Amino acid sequence: MKITIKDTKGNSQGEVEVKFPLIEDGRGTQAVHDVVVAHRAAQRMGTACTKNVGEVAGTNKKPWRQKGTGRARAGSFQSPLWRGGGVVFGPKPRDFGKKVSRKTKQLALRKALTERLRAGDVVLIEELKLTSPKTKEFVGLLAALDLKGSALIVAQEPDQNLMRASRNVPNVALTTGEALNTYDVLRSDKLVFTRGAFEKIEARLGKD
Question: Would residue 171 be called left, alpha or beta, if left means φ above 0 and alpha means ψ between -120 and 50 degrees?
C-alpha cells in the first residue's frame, strides 16, 4: 500500500510504500478491544476508600444497657446501621490495571493503523518544524493540510516549539512515534505523521 507524502503547505511530494504488513479484515479486532480496555482501565485512579467497623473512631462502650430501655439492642457506636458507622464491603484503594502481552499490543496497533490507512485518515508530511512557539503558525499549518475535526500530531521526537504552539488548540493532541499506542490511533479523526515518526512506527511493527 502506498501513501501520499506532503509538505507543510499541503503540496504533494510523491508517494511512499508502507513497509509494515497490513492486516486482513477479521483479524486483530479482539486484540484492539483488549488493548483499549486495558488502556482505559489503567487511567482509573482507584483511590476510593471507606472505613469498615474496625477503622471507624469510637469506643467499646455499649450505647445503652441491654435490657429495660424498650429500644432495640445495640452493642457498638460503629455499627453499619448507625450514622457515622462503618461501611460494609465498601471500596478500598486498588489497581484496575490489566495485563496485555506485547504481541497483543503490537497486533492491535497494526490493526488500528491498517484500518486508518485504508480509510484515508492518515496524513504524512516530510517534516514538521516551527520557527517559533506561536499558535498562529501552527493553526496555519493545520489549515494548509486541510484538517477538520480532531487531529493527532505524531512527531519524530519531542519538540518544545510544537508542544507550546499546539497546547492551546482544541481537539489537537501531540505524541511521538515511540509513544504512540492503539488508543491514540483510534480516538482522533485524523493522524498526522512526520516521515521520521512514521518510519519509527514501521520499525516497531516490523519486529516479530
Answer: left
> In this predicted model, what pLDDT tens digit does every residue of 170-190 receive, in sequence order?
999 999 989 999 999 999 999
151: cell is 487531529
- The architecture CATH gives domain 2-28+99-205: 3-Layer(aba) Sandwich (3.40)
- DSSP-assigned beta bridge partners for residue 126: none
- The pLDDT value recorded for residue 61 is 94
Q: Cβ distance 63 to 143 under 8 Å? A: no
CA distance 80 to 87: 6
Where exactly are the structural domains of the chain?
2-28+99-205, 45-95
Note the pLDDT tens digit of each residue in 46-75. 999 999 999 999 998 999 999 999 999 999
Give the SS3 label for residue 176: strand
Strands in 2-6's sheet, in edge-to-edge order, are: 12-17, 2-6, 122-125, 190-194, 151-155, 172-176
